[in-house]
## 1
Amino acid sequence: MSTAAAEAGSPGGLPAALPNFALRLILIAIADAFALLLGVSLINDGNVFLGATILVTALLLTIVNILPNLWPLRWMTPALALIALLVIYPFGYTFYIAFTNYSDGHRYARAEALQLMSREKYLPEGEASYSWEIFRNEAGEYALWLSNENETLFATTTTITLVETAGEIPESYEGYTLLTGGERFRALGDVQGAAFGDPNNPVGVASRSAAGTFRQRWVWDESRGVLMDMENNIPYRADDTTGSFVAPNGSTAPLGYWVPVGLNNFARIFSDSLIAGPLVRIFLWTVAFAFFSVFTSFVVGLFMAIVLNRSFPGVRVVRSLLIIPYAVPGMISILIWRGMLNPNLGVIATNIENIFGWSPPFLTDPGWAKFSVLLVNLWLSYPYFMLICSGALQAIPSAIYEAAEVDGANARQKFFGLTLPLLLVSVGPLLIASFTYNFNNFLLIEALTRGGPAMAGTSAPPVGHTDNLISYVFRFAFGAGGSRDYGFASAIAIIIFVLVGLLTIIQFRFSKRLEEIGENV
Amino acid sequence: MSSTRASLAAARRAETNRPNTGSSVGSVIIRIVIIAIALIFSLFPVIWIISAALNPAGSMVSQTLIPQNIQSVDDLLVNFNRLFNDPQVPFWRWISNSILVAATSTILIVLITALTAYSFSRFRFIGRRSLLLGILIIQVFPNILAMVAIYLMLLQLGKYIPLFSLNSLGSLILAYVGGGMGINIWLMKGFFDTIPRDIDESAMVDGATHWQTFWQLIFPLVQPILAVVGVLSFVGTINEFLLARIILTDRENWTLMVGLFNFVEAEFTDDWGVFAAGALIAAAPIVAVYIVLQRYIVGGLTVGAVKG
């Protein structure tokens, strides 16, 4: 960065200090060489988007750092690189993945899938290049003594060496001991399918007497678009509409690849009844949860701000104590609540049970689980609104209250006619920001209920009554009990994206932030 | 920022000067009752977890508010000892992971956004407005929405750069720093704008370069906003859960929040006391930071609305 400043004294002109200019060029060259290597490797392996993003970002930042006119942007080089790579690219890529079948069975680009499968080796049946004997060392590692009419070889699990003194098979060799009889037979089970010798060209046991060289099982024929299974001699045709290699009998190769599938993921939302039904309920709950969370914490927070808006002994201590829930890391306090709300053993349930003989099934009944989620969120966030409202209340000039009193307004009229409207002007944008936050509140749901209790009539990844949209995305992409369906999860993420965008437009209408851009300094 | 602090100062003044109107005995009692209820609601979980941490029996069902059968100080520390000696719970490792990730992310976020904000605040150039607007729009979308893409990106990137592979703290730091750009650039720029430009100009007249002006003059002046961004970033990254959970798979690499979550998933009701001990140790410093830096955090929150 210091190089940027060297030139700053003469913006638009030639660099003031030549050594700094040279140093900067060297740094740029190093960074670019690195980016070029990375980008090209990624593209070669089929990850075209990430590779291209890195190359384009590097190009643009190089231009920024070379053109004299753009010197103010040099200060932003790291920020722009991070935003390009970790904000713009992931959002762009999310949009792209939403239109593909990227998922567990289709995890790789085609080139990458082929490359991975090309590593699989098989031992052709009847392969009899060598006859073998087996050795074992103290550590329990096996080694093979391989011989045919031309040569004798000794293969450990990692190396293979030519044995000079052929002839009789020795009792022990290089720390390994020859196994015979029953031991040899038992060892056969251990070494079946194991690879010996040079890992790139391994040798293995093919039958009770013969050993041979492993062959590559999957061979890709680019011109025919066919993946040959050499072991079983079956051609698998690459089907670019489903992203699978398909055999004539309909079976598929172990690895598929991801391909664009158009609007399929979005169509599933509406056509698959196991998805459509739960998704509507999850959407409604997401909105209801965000709304009631903000509403309850705002009302309670405002109420407490008003209560504490008078001076009395210890008011500061009370305020500091009430802020503590807000200061405790969210995960920790949510887990504490999870323990306290435990329906069988938790302190809340057991005490209610002791008094009334019955206690609510807090986290196991759909309705009570939703209540619990809202209660905990109220606990977590009302101190925030108490803080905000305290500040905002103080900012309302007392003169207008005096004027209202002169006009004969009562306390109720003063609150609803003056305090609340004036408060909403300053707190309104924060209410919407809080709504947006809670709309995407993964932590609370996951830590308190894990989305549960489970909802009936849903598809593979189990979803629950308290799941919201963001945890729904999580379950499809990373959740236990389902295949990792990145494509579909991204489609849902895009829906959230659009909803958050709409919320933000509403928020911007409230706030004056946009105007700040035009302001000078 | 400055307006927030002004209003807080006003609040404090008003608090002491405002006449205590309408303090009939009835309203005083009502207020005391309300405050008592609020205190119980807010503090009961805190007290309960302290009690659980000190309760030597350690299981949820046997807990009482005042720990029973305490013979010595050692009895109070039973849960702590179990926490520290359980090989399945590398508690200090989790804490050091969390601190490493949060501290590194925070330092990088503060430095990078300060540079960027200074440029936005002081220089005029083509595309400035569009860039600012772009950053403003980007920051409204939380980066957890792109969790799938971030995960896949790290999966692909990690093959070439081990530092940024999945299951590494480096990749988590990368994700946090990237996600911390937008809002913090705006927070910083707003504060930089309140520092008079005359300061820069007089320094430039004296022959200082932009870099010298920034580093020697402006940087010390903007320390309040550096503290706000620093504290919010630190607390935010310490508390972050979703990305940490996706990226870190090995027990040894977990951050504290992922570790505690998985601990609770595995063995909650029986090891309630051990969990409570861990929760107490983890929460205490952060609560202390909050109370000490209350002023900064409240100021930052009214601008940024990061949590809540």
## 2
Amino acid sequence: MAPLDLTAIFGVNGSYLVYIGIGFCFGFILESSGFGDSRKLAAQFYFSELRVLKVMFTAIVVAMLLVFWATALGLLDYDELMVKQTWLWPGIVGGLIMGVGFILGGYCPGTSLVSTATLKVDGMFFLLGHIVGVVAFGETVGYIYEFWNSGYMGRFLLPELLGLPTGVVVLLVVCMAIAMFLGFGWIQRLIYKRGDPQ
Amino acid sequence: MSAVFNLRVLGGGLLLAAAGALALHGQPDLEQKWAFMAPEYGARLENREVYIDPAELLHMMNDDYIDLVIYDVRDERDWNIFHLVDAERVSLDDLPAQRDRLRGLSELAVVVVVSNDEIRATQAWKRLMALAKPNAYILEGGLNHWLNIYGVLDEEYESHGTASLHKPDGTLRHPFKIALGARHAAAQPDEHHTPERIYTTKVKLLKKVARAGGCD
């Protein structure tokens, strides 16, 4: 039953090869989908280009279905997957900061790495700023330690929040994603009188 | 354009169909999850690799380097009559609430499940494995066996003989005049004043203990 211990199966070097293979495929898809271009990323917020959003949410929905179908069939132990624990208040503030940073800089930390890989200067500067920010946070977190640890909720998931079975929540998320694709496409056509290039 | 549109409709339809089928199928509960895990973990039960001798549990109770968690899965009546010091009573149905705690246990943690015999403790062990795969063991022969070894005759409080361990039925086979809980002498026997017992060590820690020597 997955998750598998790749090091035990393939050895240390073998597992590195698997990681490189997965990383290559991941990077290839990100770059070819436009995740390394700050203009395409920022365009999502203005509804002028929805490719990144569609790729990202399709990936999220497909991964979610694969994870929970694999769990339902006994192929994967979902509880063994690392799920970030919830610290509600710092999570909300951090999300706001990241959202503002995303729309101002045109990248999130991950996409700035993709951009840097193709030697885009704005991506490099964003990444540099990211590193400086991480160091600054590490040096000052002591001053906000109580807030940083506030609102702890453990491994808190949507089914628990909504009080619904996991499968129903998965269905709702899929419906939400499809509704979002259709709705955002409608807004795009309304504002720009065109859809995404086919 | 039409072909692209049809592909989109097909993709969206497939996603919806897969999600709808998943909502109907549901996610496995602990029993189903154990059934999935049984081929991998069931052999530990069959080979009795996880059934530890009472002396091994007593040794761990006195080992400050081990983070010992003892789950007593008996009903409240038996718990009130007698239980081990530091044991926590958790019913089988309440075990899922322990998941976060189990996942946060250190590598020096050992979980031991106890019941009157091995029946309910074995059920609890399966649920624990389905919940979080902790480093968990079962008290061999249960508390009936424990009391056979460490139970003391004390006219003032209770009288003990040696209870039969054959044909276990989940009951506490030792008679108690009054409920003493963890105040019973056998709840935490002095390891150095109990008869030496030869047993096979079965507990394996996930991390090697760095024991301090000398004055530490």
